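Journal club prep, shared notes

We agreed each person brings one worked example of a sequence with its structure written out as tokens. Mine is CAP-Gly domain-containing protein. I'm keeping it raw so we can talk through how to read the token line rather than staring at a rendered picture. Sequence first:
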Amino acid sequence: MSGTLNLWVKSPDTHSERRIDPHLTVEQLKGKLELITGIPARNQVITLLESESDPRVVASLDDDTKKLGFYGLRDWQVLKVRLNRMLLIAGLPRWAKVDDKNPSNTLTGQLTDVSQVEKFEISEAEYAKRTDSVLAYKQRNKVGRFAENAEEPANEAIDESVKVGARCEVESSEELKKRGTIRFVGPTKFGKGIWVGVEYDEPLGKNNGSVQGEQYFACRDKYGVFVRADRVTAGDFPVEELDLDEEM
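Then the structure, token by token:
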């Protein structure tokens, strides 16, 4: 879509790059942000900040009838959702934030807040002694690495397009299109054979590019994942657009 702006959308539960039409009105933008952030459009207050190092308020997007172009939005600004606090993204030239005026009516941030969750912890040695665990089930039924025919994987044939820096889409059992950038291709200490490390566009991963204390690449937490090469398709997979024409 020509004429769109590359912008970041950030909330306690998501952070992604989106393409947004500057001809959107503030009201239309709020509707789009509700789908991404979970904050109801009627409860959003959008303000434009100068930068991370200079967080002066440039403008308040308080007129729902005005188009985004009226406020001078440019590439790589950040539409930021905050819940009673300011969240910052480093390295971006300009900033925007979205405040939740009615946080009691939303679940924003609660999905990732584990501070109130009581945790059950057990050592690896104690876990190995249990007879009711997944590990014990696999041992009894010879599943996975305990299978009788388990052997060293053959040298996988990796498509030459699967290389560091390439855009890709990862096959998922969750029926989601998980897009990202390949950050690592090679052997690891945590598993046999060749693995592909991917930095997702959104927090759909499992780690920050490290596994079992070994750092293979660097990204934000929950944006990194390691998968087998046969689940990765490299190619022209741009960051998904925030399309005005899609159903709302």
